[in-house]
Amino acid sequence: MTDLIHLSAADLASKLQSREVSSVEATKAHLDRIAGVDGDVHAFLHVNAGALATAKSIDERRAAGETLGELAGVPIAVKDVLCTIGMPSTSGSKILEGWIPPYDATAVAKVRAAGLVPLGKTNMDEFAMGSSTEFSAYGPTHNPWNLDRIPGGSGGGSAAAVAAFEAPLALGSDTGGSIRQPGAVTGTVGVKPTYGSVSRYGAIALASSLDQIGPVSRTVLDSALLHDVIKGHDPRDSTSLRDEWPSFADAARAGLAPGSLQGVKVGIVRELNGDGFQAGVKARFADAVALLTAAGAEIVEVSAPSFEYAISAYYLILPAEASSNLAKFDSVRFGLRVTPEGGGTVEQVMAATREQGFGPEVKRRIILGTYALSAGYYDAYYGSAQKVRTLVQRDFSRLFDEVDVLISPSAPTTAFPIGEKIDDPLAMYLNDLTTIPANLAGIPGLSLPMGLADEDGLPTGIQLMAPAREDARLYTYGAALEQLFESTWGHTLISKAPSLSVSEQSAATEGVV
Ligand code: GLN
Fold first, then answer.
1. Active-site residue numbers?
2. What pTM was computed for the model?
3. 461-495: per-residue pLDDT in tens?
4. Most buried by CB count within 10 Å: which residue of 174, 320, 375, 377?
5. Helical H segments across 171-268, by residue range
6. 153 CA to middle of ligand 1, Å?
7. Which residues line ligand 1 (CB under 6 A)?
8. 154 cis-preceded (ω within 30 degrees of 0)
9. Could you give the dihedral angle defined by the CA atoms of residues 235, 210, 444 and 121, in that order, rounded to the nearest 10 degrees?
10. Atom 4 (ligand 1): residue with closest C-alpha?
11. CATH assignment of 2-308+389-509?
């Protein structure tokens, strides 16, 4: 049988449509892979015991002649930030351990309705706060390229699952880079859609004005296909856009046509490629720029002065919103309840629960956010940060008057060793230098692999950004660039990922399902 775990979602989908392969076979192949390698990778917090039954029902519906969605029968991993009926949803926190939501997030409901098969829930930094997945209350995820390295964060589980061929697709969430930065350091593709284009209903909120759900995959087309499934207006999300979106898959396919980069105006953002970036990242970025130039794109260097303050503004706005969103974990309505010895008042139970249930990064941000919102400091901190946010938005709109798309490295470094930055919050926050501006402005960003850094042989990523609502542009130019890279290298980047074959041989297939 074909090697099912190494197929792209698009290729697997066409084998499912032609009934060359069944969804049960595809799902079983991925569950076997999870059983084989996830002891080492730890991408999953929970494997879906009902996956094969779901796959079987899709096969039966197809056999009965029902018209199914393009990705029907394809397995998918789901970040644990999303609520799922029948599966625990912890957002990587002890405070929600064992909590099974009574409803599906809209993105999950759409994925199920399109016939995709949820394989399980993926690991993440607690409440999506972090850039390495080390802040998960359930232990870190390991980068499949080098198990001693971080897989990025907060969505390291989704990225590692896709990079380790445990799933062809995953759902992630991106508040400041949690889809794109893990994509960069695991050699996968990740997209933060335009704010409001994918419903946030049922996504456990971090910072509501920044959070966005998006796709994770190994190819640009696969992300486009998944984005097509999850996009669209949702009356349950008051910030959901009412736009009619074009087909993102068609946009990606258009990028594969010859000459699709001819005359495209590409801006390199000076502030997002400066000092402090790893030499190997800068070298691969220079290669990418050379490829774009050779393909007929017009490259200009542009400047966005406000970006210098973007991280500082983000780390006031995010904690402010998070401190408010996390107030609902009060020991009464959700998950954990810790009663102090000898009993206590409601306030004492609440304090004991939050003391035990939240990890150090979450506490740090709640304290910071509460302080930034306090009456005496509100204008000085939160107010100033919101002004910076406006400046970032203005910089972007000025630049998009000049260029079609902006580019930068997706992350300043390759995957760093597990443990290296865990005690240094500021060093951890700098990983999102390149991704945060897009969240502050609500615009879409796509990260795709741009090669391996010379010094450590680890993946690097390039980020493409477009104006709000122009997600299709990212898929067209992203697919074109991906094709350029692959024809230059003669292979896909992910095909160079270590196979993790030692553990694979000792796989205990039964027991998972
Ligand atoms: N690493 C960033 C943070 O810690 C981004 C988080 C995210 O996008 N969820 O806030």
1. 79, 154, 178
2. 0.97
3. 999 999 999 999 999 999 999 999 999 999 999 99
4. 174
5. 180-186, 220-230, 248-255
6. 7
7. 128-131, 153-154, 173-178, 206, 318, 432
8. yes
9. -80
10. 130
11. 3.90.1300.10
